[in-house]
Amino acid sequence: MELKIPSLKNQFYIRLHKQLHNFVAMTENRIRQVFRERKEQGKTVTVAGPMVRYSKLPFRALVRHFDCDVVYSPMMLAREFCRNQTARLCDFTTNKDDFPLIVQLGGNNAEDMVKAVKMLQPYVDGVGINCGCPIKEQIREGVGAALMTAPDLVAEMVAAIRKECGAEIYVEVKMRIHKDLNDTVHFAKLVEAAGADSISVHGRLVPQRSRTAPNYDGIKIVKDSVDVPVIANGDAFTTTNIEEIVELTGCDGVMAARGILSNPAMFAGYTKTPWRAVELFWDYVTAYGLPYALTIHHFSEMLEAELTRYEKKDLNNCKNMVELINWFDDRFDLKRPGDEDFAIRDEYPWKNRTSFVYN
Ligand SMILES: Cc1cc2nc3c(=O)[nH]c(=O)nc-3n(C[C@H](O)[C@H](O)[C@H](O)COP(=O)(O)O)c2cc1C
């Protein structure tokens, strides 16, 4: 076979490509970097947990703006993601500012997981395996919380991703606790040994709903059993809650889901959604795109503490994006990017509020 010598120009590009490749290989994974830096600073890693439908790009950008260190995508089913381009386009959009990002996958076998991770790898810092989703349809398929009783399979998934996708990708497992905490410790130790970078623990049993208080002792037992970072999850609604959770569990990070849904600025110390978050969210929604049903749901959650019952009903009567933006413009002094005062005010700039409350 004739050996073809690349032209000088091509040699230059090949060298450049190799240098870039080496640079990327040498660069620390951005999630590991966050954990290392926060540890050095004596700080807790703040994590925006996965929320099916809600943890989309505009919302991720918003929580990042308010001191969230690591952000999850919603769970995506690994098999659907690989098979179906429409599922990929609907489920996953990202951009260059969307980091550090963990995409959470649901799956019931290592092969699907590896395939999905290989497709995602160029765009994300890490992947997570969902072992906590209690939805019956998922459990029936052996996905989500079904994996809580299959620690060997989860360890196999972690090891396969590690082997096939390399050391650079961050691999995480999000689990719940078991009735018998010995099972929880066994589970955590197995996934750690398989090569997981960290473990997130939602401190509730699979059948327990959010009104049951999380078992922080159960989370602490995991933290005390493994060497990798552990992220505590359950009922973090304020920065005071976060301090208490760290105190009780000794964990390296705290993950919030419902807390940031109702107040995306929670990690920055706000106790309710500040007005600036509303303006920023409008900007991200219009710049990156978000379906109307999700947009109104987010605003409804974010404004929960500010609006009266009548005002909430009124907001939820909006039928489309145009009505929604008019609703805001009629009631508030809503600034756009480029306007003076855009995204700097915390108080709600109401216009003639009382006339709307009772109308
Ligand atoms: C709307 C919603 C969607 C969720 N979707 C997911 C998901 O896709 N994957 C997952 O592991 N957990 C999911 N969860 C669970 C949360 O990530 C979290 O574990 C749980 O809500 C407890 O945290 P919290 O008390 O801070 O809300 C979801 C929770 C909510 C409220």
UniProtKB/TrEMBL annotation:
InterPro entries xref list: Aldolase_TIM (IPR013785), DUS-like_FMN-bd (IPR035587), DUS_fam (IPR001269), tRNA_hU_synthase_CS (IPR018517)
Cofactor(s) essential for the protein: FMN
Keyword terms of this UniProt record: Flavoprotein, FMN, mRNA processing, NAD, NADP, Nucleotide-binding, Oxidoreductase, tRNA processing
EC id: 1.3.1.-
GO BP annotations listed: mRNA processing
GO molecular function: flavin adenine dinucleotide binding; mRNA dihydrouridine synthase activity; tRNA dihydrouridine synthase activity; tRNA-dihydrouridine20a synthase activity; tRNA-dihydrouridine20b synthase activity
Domain DUS-like FMN-binding: 47-310
Keyword tRNA processing recorded: yes
Pfam families: Dus (PF01207)
Keyword Nucleotide-binding (UniProt): yes
Catalytic activity: 5,6-dihydrouridine(20b) in tRNA + NAD(+) = uridine(20b) in tRNA + NADH + H(+); a 5,6-dihydrouridine in mRNA + NAD(+) = a uridine in mRNA + NADH + H(+); 5,6-dihydrouridine(20b) in tRNA + NADP(+) = uridine(20b) in tRNA + NADPH + H(+); 5,6-dihydrouridine(20a) in tRNA + NAD(+) = uridine(20a) in tRNA + NADH + H(+)
UniProt-listed PROSITE patterns: UPF0034
Residues reported in the UniProt entry to bind FMN: P50, M51, V52, Q104, H202, A257, R258
Active site feature: C133 (proton donor)
Family of this protein: Belongs to the Dus family. Dus4 subfamily.
Function: Catalyzes the synthesis of dihydrouridine, a modified base found in the D-loop of most tRNAs.
Entry protein name: tRNA-dihydrouridine synthase
Organism phylogeny: Eukaryota, Fungi, Dikarya, Ascomycota, Saccharomycotina
